[in-house]
Structure formats: structure tokens, C-alpha cells
Design brief:
119 residues; mainly alpha; extended
């Protein structure tokens, strides 16, 4: 478990260093996740140790939302003052994500159908 957590944290660190060194407007953990994805593709998937560790982390995922909940309580007055732009951003981004997902799914289904449906 320690080895798998170390690998995860090293990829996050690599993403953070890359983001800051190159001055990219993308958060380091996102870059690290992309690098980790490429690593897993090259390696042929996760090993059993990494799979078990990821499963354990996912079982306790709700604990990772405690800091966000604390932030909401801490900045309650600011959120109450800025509720309209926050609500617009949440609703707008949700609708946009649904639309983009539907368009990508439609394009993939058309591509699959045009290719003869082989798979």
C-alpha cells in the first residue's frame, strides 16, 4: 500500500512541478493524472497492489469532502452574498457537461455504426 501511495503522490508531484515550471494554467494534479494515465497505458494497466490501494481510497472517498464542507461553513457569508453567480456557474457547467457528453456519445455511436459495428 505504501508503494502504491508513493507512486500516486510522485505523479501528483511531477504534475505540480511541470505546471509551475512551464507556467501552465492547468492545476498540477490534473497534469499528474494525465501522466499517470499515460504510465498505465504503457504499463498495460494497474498492478494488483495499485488496484487494492485505489479501491481502499475510493471506499473512504467521502472523507476527502470534509475540507470542502468546512470551507462552505467558513465562507458561508461570502457564498450567501455571491449565490447568484455561483448558482449560474454550477447550473451552466452541469448543462454544458451533459451537452458535451451527449455530443461525444452521439459521434462515437455514429462512428461505430459507420465502421460496421465491429468490436
Amino acid at each position: 500500500m505504501i508503494a502504491a501511495l508513493t507512486v500516486l503522490l510522485l505523479f501528483q508531484l511531477a504534475g505540480e512541478v511541470s505546471s509551475r515550471a512551464l507556467g501552465l494554467p492547468v492545476p498540477g494534479p490534473v497534469i499528474g493524472m494525465g501522466l499517470f494515465f499515460i504510465y498505465l497505458l504503457v504499463r498495460g494497466g494497474p498492478g494488483e497492489n495499485l488496484r487494492d490501494t485505489a479501491g481502499t481510497l475510493l471506499q473512504h472517498l467521502s472523507l476527502l469532502f470534509v475540507p470542502a464542507g468546512t470551507g462552505i461553513v467558513l465562507y458561508g457569508e461570502l457564498i450567501a452574498a455571491e449565490w447568484l453567480p455561483l448558482a449560474a456557474a454550477l447550473i451552466g457547467s452541469t448543462v454544458l457537461a451533459i451537452v458535451v457528453t451527449a455530443l461525444v456519445l452521439d459521434a462515437l455511436l455514429r462512428r461505430r455504426k459507420a465502421g460496421g459495428g465491429a468490436q
